Amino acid sequence: MMTKPARPISRLVVLKTGDPVPRVAETRGQFADLIIGAVGDLWSEEWAAVDVRTEPPPDPDSAAAFIITGSSSSVTERAEWMLRTEEWIRNAHAKQTQIFGICFGHQLIAQALGGLVAKNPRGREIGKVTVERIADDPIFEGLGQSFDVHATHVDSVVTLPPDARLLAKTALEPNAAFSIGENIRAVQYHPEIDDEVMREYLKARWEVVKTEGLDIDAIFNGIGNVPHNAATLQNFIAQLVSARGGVRA
What is the CB neighbour count within 10 angstroms for residue 6? Predict the structure, then answer.
């Protein structure tokens, strides 16, 4: 039987599951724009974006890696497009496709592969938060035992998939990052969101955060430069995707 030769795939695909808050979309663009900006010169090849809410995800073999974005939607809605994307995740994982999940993407991966997503019983996590590493992983290259990131979410992965390896936690999120095998990494926080974008998210959520009893003024004033916020996404590209030469079987 002839073996299909390996072929280089010089493309990263962003799977769009939602839109940034309106002010961010107006001034900074969509999540794909923020992700591309956060990755910077680490990937100089082709980028593509597919809105999985309105069209099916592409063939898992058609890219070096896929990045699943955040969303204001909830995985618990079980919308048809979510179920379709979860099926794609299972298929892509079986093919050892490299995937990086961000916030909603993190949750969707967990749900697709046997975990459980629900409203975070510890409450909303928003603003600058500190991540504590629990395990070593290539996405933490160059980072200390703890580092600050930007986060905004209400739902949580309350049960990890059976094959997941817990990588990190925060004060409100015990499953802040996980890996599955060699090909999947997922983070609950937003490595693509800088301090300017984080402030716009807080402005957009101001009243609802106040009604939940959080000190929104303190959270807003606590936003500042977070130098390592994008590091885990950048390391995924540099340590896992580029290190493999973008080669898919």
Answer: 10
Q: What is the mean pLDDT of the chain?
A: 94
Give dist(CA 100, CA 114) in Å, integer.
Answer: 17
pTM for this predicted structure: 0.94
Active-site positions read 103, 190, 192
Segment (H or E) for 186: strand 184-187
CB 172 within 8 A of CB 120: yes
Give Cα 111 to chain centroid, integer Å: 14
Structure tokens at 183: 């090909």
With CA atoms as reference, report the closest residue to 147 among 155, 158, 139. 139
Q: Would you give the end-to-end CA distance of the chain in angstroms? A: 16
Q: What pLDDT, in 10s, does the model give residues 25-42?
A: 999 999 999 999 999 999
pLDDT in the model for residue 225 = 84
